[in-house]
Design goal:
Blueprint (H helix, E strand, L loop, with lengths): L8 H27 L4 H20 L3 H18 L7 H26 L10 H11 L8 H4 L17 H11 L4 E8 L14 H7 E7 L20 E7 L3 H8 L5 E8 L58 H32 L5 H29 E3 L1 H4 L2 H12 L3 E6 L4 E3 H22 L3 H6 L6 E10 L2 E8 L6 H10 L5 H5 L3 H5 L23 H10 L3 E7 L3 E9 L4 E9 L2 E6 L3 E8 L4 E3 L2 E6 L2 E7 H4 L14 E9 L2 E6 L2 E9 L13 E6 L5 E5 L1 H11 L2
Parallel strand pairs: 6-8, 13-22, 17-19
Antiparallel strand pairs: 1-3, 1-4, 2-3, 5-7, 8-9, 9-11, 10-11, 12-13, 12-20, 14-18, 15-16, 16-17, 18-19, 21-22
Helix pairs in contact: 1-2, 1-4, 2-3, 3-4, 3-5, 4-5, 10-11, 13-14, 14-19
Length: about 725
Amino acid sequence: MADLPLDDPSFYEDFLVEAGEHFELIEQNFLVLEENPGDLDILNAIFRSVHTIKGASGFLGLQKVQGLAHIGENILDDLRKGRMTATPEVMELLFETADTLKVLVNDVGLNIRKQGPPKDPDTTSLIQRLEALKSGGTAPAPVSSEAPSAGRCRIPATFEHLDAESRSIIDAASAEGPVLLIKAEFDPAILQSAFKPTSLLPTVDLVGSLLHVSSPIREEPTLDSFDPGRVYMDMVLAVRPNEDLATIKRLFAGFQNVRFEFHLLGSEGEGASLPAAPAPAVVPAAAAPAVPEPPKPAPEKASADRPADRAPDKSGSDTIRVSQAKLDGFMNTVAELIISKTMISHLVERLGAETQGTALDGLTKELHQASAYLDQVSKEIQAAVLGIRMVPIKTIFGKFPRMLRDLAKASGKRIELKVFGEETEIDKSLIEELSDPLIHLIRNSADHGVELPEQRAAQGKPETGTVVLKARHEGDSVIVEIEDDGKGIDPAIIKAKAIEKGILAADRAESLSDDEIIDLIFLPGFSTAQKVTDISGRGVGMDVVRSHVRKLNGNVSVRSTVGKGSVFTIRLPLTLAIIDALLMRAGGQVFALPGAAVEETLLVTQAQVASLTRRKAINLRGEVLGVTRLRDLLQFRDDDSVPADAEDLPVVVVSSAGRRMGLIVDAFIRRQEMVIKPLAPYLASLPGISGASIMEDGGVVLILDPSELLTLATEEAP
């Protein structure tokens, strides 16, 4: 893609965000349209999104985006008016058009952010196929062959600065019906406001269908005569009106520092200039919204009894955009605040013990009150910043319907995706990292889980398989589940494959439960696929899922029933920055265990611990629970101050991914909020350790990984 016409990158950044929202909705609505080809509301929603992208790209000088969006818009218009049917061929071409537009728009992001060379796809062939489709399947014809000659309609002198391409588009549109040209002339005072020309587009949606946007140069100054306080560019909108002109002029009259001129083409009054809109009253800048309002997937039809004198919304936008880097910096500052608060609380407690009964006792109590207030305020700040960082998980769920559709078509299967809990909120930093594991799991369900239609029919199942994507909150965790009603995972096949590959000894395999055998699918390189496909089968997916989720301080587990399907469960913390943890001592070292993994704590006697071969266990309310010493599990040195044969043994019951065990420690300390810090590279490979934190006295405490501890305990057994 060539260099961008406008120097201000903020215009393009806003366009990228808004275009991304539109593309997400376009894709969702395309999937609905496939099932309901005649749904006019869906078609109108898609059409509005496409013409908004076209209009904004035209204003920004993105001619390649505008050209492809224009022909795609023509196809959609034919679908809306019944001149074309949404056949599979048409839908595939529309999907390809949307995909190509996304690549072109992404190129804009690569260009302004200097993130690499743009892909700059050649759209010539695609445009030719779209034009051929529009002409009824005949040989592709150039754009100019469909457009009327330049002299078909008379464009008044006030629009003389329009380029040839804009004139051609307007000519073609006016041949099919009335076209209203709206010229927006900007006053120099607009440079001192937050107004953006693209904020005109939502108002256009109220009065008709946007056909074209151009930004003609009013006058081209020389370098010596250039005045930064003047405006040299206007904006021209070509609209297919569906409102009377009086209503249209009233709606546009609310914009400050903008003069509008209207001209109607393609009607009996063609060429007759209409009176300009009344001089706009001075209104607050908020009368013009800062950015276009994101469209809805299936908007309701416009009300027929809408008041003619409807005034623009003066409430203004109640949202602002903040970069992820600023939020991360804010979060780091809050984390340091929590560490400082903990240190102060510790010092106040020490001071209280030393000054009790002295003249300083009263002052110490005041410090204690101030410390308690600081604790309350810091918690409120922490909750606020976490709330700011929280985003609905639908931001990544939205990409999977299209992906599963393509996977189903490629494999010859019929698969329906059901989504629940997409409003569940999660830290934005986790959102960005969760996408890859979910892609692997959904591809796995589509390829290995759901059977072919004829196989499902033979088993008495519906020919269309189902993949269910769920999200919910559980305490301080987010649970994401991927469930399918396919063939499930056969433990016998897994066991045989593990023995064949030398991963598992035959005698060892016999002692494992079905759940433990199924868990082997997460081992590197493990695959039961008979052949490698474009979707999966290389054995490099499930281990990536587990390792990726563990990096997020989460875990992944699987439940499966042969012939009925599988459920993969991902458990993640709400945030990576701050956790509630149980502090405990083992082997002369202080450790922190994430509170989400702690089921309960208890004291047991030496007599209550039974030995089963090399394993030890206790009877916990009628249930046999395996136990092990944490200091032995981590191979830390013994602490002589705590004898191994102490009568009372502190035990913490840990659960992760459906597994439970008891950890014998030397002592419990307390529960405390911990700010997670990453380990240094040379410590990252420590088994059972996921991170570190700073204590109130400045010391460092290691944070345990519950899932890896359970794995270590299993490997320790014969």
